[in-house]
Amino acid sequence: MHDYKVSRLFDIPFKTKHVIIRQEVMWSPPPANKVKFNCDGSTVGAQSCGAVGFVIRDSNSTFLGAISSNIGHATALEAEFSACLLAIETAMEMQLNQICLETDSIRVVNAFRKNTGIPWQMRVRWHNCLKFCNNIDCSCVHVLREGNQVADALAKNGQGLAMFSSQWWSTPPTSILAILYRDSIGLAYSRLSTVKFCPPFVFEVLFAVFALFFKLFDVSGSGCTWFF
Description:
alpha+beta; 6-stranded mixed β-sheet
């Protein structure tokens, strides 16, 4: 507001932020006879405490299960990989043979397709999971963050769990009911972007110029007197 008043005082064009809807993003169910795992990782704090979450749904958008898990210290990339690994390991336990993994991490998708870029401490676990995926009907696809809201909420929930503990739901927790319903009816999320405006430092420079002016000149009603 202060910058705006100054711009009006000196008749300086003032550019404001404009929000633009770039894309409509929605979650889509998997093909018939397949189940979809939406996975996400989360990190918070200076020590990067990591958590993961995933949700399982079928082609009718029916909820089949979900998990939140605290994985301790982890980088953002490690959290994303851990979420996908945990989803695959759960698919093994459930003896599923037609699955679709969906994540908002392009690096995880590239690792799945090209087997590159895996964090070194996860390589053995990753290759074991990939071996399982190669023997079943399994795909890994990228989704924009707006289409991965349920997994995002579950991963953030994991931040509140005890270190290295997990919570499994066989019925939907109340915290994600609204998002699940929104996904089931195909209601889209808007992916927004903003138009940048003139940065605040422009006004700081302007103030500095005026401060210098008043320092060099004695401004009075009769005119200006040099100090030097």
